[in-house]
Design a protein that fits this description.
This protein is α/β, with parallel strands linked by helices and about 210 residues long. The chain contains 11 helices and 8 strands. Helix 4 packs across helix 5 and helix 5 runs parallel beside helix 6. It binds SN-glycerol-3-phosphate (G3P).
Length: about 210
């Protein structure tokens, strides 16, 4: 399973990329607004660290999405144009596929939306599991449903588990065979940690001090 960082913070991307485990980055308008930095510069800088950086269009009509998406794709070959799951978005996905521009469909909340986006030509679909959990639904059950559908067909479209909230989401996404999981910075930093690792390392080092004097 590929691991992406869900952020618009370039320093965090550089830090986690240095661990050798990072396959991409997902940004969205809310994350970009939080950082308050220039969007184009941010995306280009991130593209130096990872091969796949999702940059979201803010236009809501096909013509606007086409214009913005083509511009983003011209910034760097690592850019993936993120398109919202609407009927205008479907048109844009279809268009970008015909032009060889990679896309990620955001705001997927049902299996029907997932199938439509894949059929329209999305390279990636992003079901938001945490937001489903927030309203009392079962986000990971949707991933299970989508992966079951994906097994029956040959969609050229990766399933990216988005809106993750804790490390267990990443493990469960991997167990279901999701292709990609995007993870917020605070959750990503929890992934390498285990209390027994810390205790074990301390004991090894303390014992070694006794031998080494
Ligand atoms: O990648 C989508 C993600 O940013 C949404 O996360 O936590 O706002 O639901 P959240």
């Amino acid at each position: 399973m590929k691991l992406f960082l869900d952020t618009a913070n370039v320093e965090s991307v550089a830090e986690i990329a240095s661990w050798g485990v990072l396959d991409g980055v997902t940004t969205n308008p809310s994350l970009v607004a939080k950082e308050g930095k220039d969007f184009k510069k941010t995306v280009i800088e991130m593209c130096k660290h990872v091969p796949c950086v999702s940059a979201q269009v803010t236009a809501t009509d096909f013509a606007g999405m086409k214009k913005q998406g083509e511009e983003y794709a011209s910034w760097h070959k690592h850019v993936v144009v993120k398109v919202p799951m609407t009927t205008e978005g479907l048109k844009a996905l279809h268009y970008f596929r015909s032009k060889g521009i990679r896309t990620n469909t955001t705001l997927i909340f049902s299996a029907a939306q997932a199938v439509l986006a894949a059929k329209a030509g999305a390279n990636i679909i992003s079901p938001f599991i945490g937001r489903l959990d927030d309203i009392g639904e079962n986000g990971m059950a949707l991933i299970g449903e989508i992966m079951q559908i994906w097994l029956q067909y040959d969609f050229d479209c990766e399933v990216l588990v988005a809106s993750t909230r804790h490390p267990r989401h990443i493990v469960d996404a991997a167990k279901l065979g999701a292709h990609i999981c995007t993870v917020p910075v605070d959750v990503f930093k929890k992934l390498p940690q285990h209390a027994l690792t810390d205790v074990g390392l301390k004991r090894f080092l303390d014992d070694w001090k006794k031998v080494a004097g």
